[in-house]
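Q: what sequence does this backbone want?
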């Protein structure tokens, strides 16, 4: 997944809208770095409905437990069950194998309120200049 097509929340979730109009959701690379080694995840049930920014999952890391918020309103139509056996995938590949849920959105207007990669990078204080210094 290319980060340029993603949208982000200030709570560090990412969203990718598929060609079918589904929202694939996970946590950002920045978030997984802050959490440290992820040891387990509690996923929502299929068919669960969430309002935008409602807590939908819990990630447990060696440092803390953290809520994962639903960036868009909608219904959970798929969960990444592989994460039960491999929660470390969120650390290793947060934008690919570490995705968390797929959502059928109920309000596509909410997408425009999410952050672009540039805005998210500014939010976490990682400007392009700082990135090039690393």
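A:
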């Amino acid at each position: 997944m290319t980060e340029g097509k993603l949208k982000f929340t200030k709570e560090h979730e990412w969203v990718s809208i598929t060609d079918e109009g589904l929202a694939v959701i996970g946590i950002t690379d920045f978030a997984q770095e802050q959490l440290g080694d992820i040891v387990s995840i509690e996923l929502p049930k299929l068919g669960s409905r969430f309002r935008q920014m409602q807590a939908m999952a819990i990630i447990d890391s060696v440092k803390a437990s953290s809520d994962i918020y639903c960036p868009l309103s909608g219904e959970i139509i798929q969960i990444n069950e592989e994460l039960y056996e491999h929660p470390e995938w969120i650390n290793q590949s947060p934008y690919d194998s570490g995705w968390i849920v797929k959502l059928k959105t109920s309000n596509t207007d909410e997408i425009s309120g999410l952050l672009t990669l540039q805005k998210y990078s500014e939010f976490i204080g990682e400007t392009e200049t700082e990135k090039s210094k690393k």
